Amino acid sequence: MKIGIDKMSFFTSDLYLPMEDLAKARNEDPNKYLIGIGQSKQAVIRNSQDSVTLAANAALKIVDDNEKEKIDLILFGTESGVDNSKSGAIYLQSLLGINSSASGVELKQACFGLTAGIQMAMGHIALHPESRVLLVGSDIARYGIGTLGEKTQGGGAVAIIMSANPHLLEIGTQSAHLTKDIMDFWRPLNRSEALVDGKYSSAEFINFFKETFENYLEKTGEEIDKFTALIFHLPYTKMGLKALRSVIEDLDNDDLKESLLEHFEESRYLNREVGNLYTGSLYLSLLSLLHARNLKAGDQIGLFSYGSGAEGEFYSAKVVEGYEKYVTDEEIAFLDQRTSVSVAEYEQIYRSFMRPQTADYRTEFENDPAPFVLKGQQQQQRIYEKVN
């Protein structure tokens, strides 16, 4: 039985910060941001959005009335959870009106959560072939104003529906996994911003990729030339390019090198426009690659997922015939309609976020054009609403 990705969608804020402006405000050479880390724009998330509303806004695009009845499992990957007990999947189920017999959980391991959900969904569908599983990776990447990590901030959500006989990708049954207890990135319970050892994390990212990729090839007996594209979790897009170069630099096949590099460029387009999505970054890269429409049925894509702390996994998927009909330009057209904000405006929005507190709070949701918004907090309960 073929199991894989049947539908995909994506959502982020209607506001963005040009990376060139941020570089100048921080007295940096703009090329350090535009070329050095490979980012053009950074999503600026309003204080009326959190991981739940971002997920709901992304999933709304693919969850119609028919899906609301058929979905029987919701897997919510995030490291920006809004409650230490209650799953974001429960909020998502309620906001979207998904049938009450569907079950759901929240998955956390830094940026690895959605990939863990992919593997869980594979097993669930194998046992229940009629199942349709909704998965989301939804996060807001926050490091702090003026910090070293500021230039790799961003946010948004990717939503996926997995099923048997999918229309986009058939996911392979083989994967290679690696787990190590390291402190390259973490966020203590008393903090809303992450802590990161940037150079250490970048080095471990490449080490994890090379080890899982080599293990995958050994397990399957395949060679690198079996892959049409290799795509990556992209905390910033230059990171994926470094990882790709680490396995192609010694190849004798120049045509393969060029092809893999061309497909990588296609895969990082959307990430350059948004910034770091944490759990959704790999899958935004996948969506970007599919939207380029330069693949054909049967092409094999290698996917590398990395979650600091750390877990890494390499697996593969094959392109389904006719996938082009299920990726539309309208899906990502909203990115061209976003509004640019100044550095001062970005800083004001950043500081306005509701922090963990007991007091009631009201967001500026009236200014938010998104369908689902966070209105604030009353008696320590978050208030969500569909307004558009």
TrEMBL record:
(3S)-3-hydroxy-3-methylglutaryl-CoA binds at D29, Y143, K242, N276. Keywords: Acyltransferase, Transferase. InterPro entries: HMG_CoA_synt_C_dom, HMG_CoA_synth_N, HMG_CoA_synthase_prok, Thiolase-like. SUPFAM superfamilies: Thiolase-like. CDD domains: init_cond_enzymes. It holds the Pfam family HMG_CoA_synt_N. One of its GO terms (biological process) is acetyl-CoA metabolic process. The active site is at E79 (proton donor/acceptor), C111 (acyl-thioester intermediate), H233 (proton donor/acceptor). Residues 3-164 form the Hydroxymethylglutaryl-coenzyme A synthase N-terminal domain. Residues 175-247, 262-348 form the Hydroxymethylglutaryl-coenzyme A synthase C-terminal domain. Its EC number is 2.3.3.10. One of its GO terms (molecular function) is hydroxymethylglutaryl-CoA synthase activity. The keyword Plastid does not apply. NCBIfam families: HMG-CoA-S_prok. Belongs to the thiolase-like superfamily. HMG-CoA synthase family. PANTHER family: 3-HYDROXY-3-METHYLGLUTARYL COENZYME A SYNTHASE, HYDROXYMETHYLGLUTARYL-COA SYNTHASE. This is Hydroxymethylglutaryl-CoA synthase. It comes from Pediococcus pentosaceus (strain ATCC 25745 / CCUG 21536 / LMG 10740 / 183-1w).
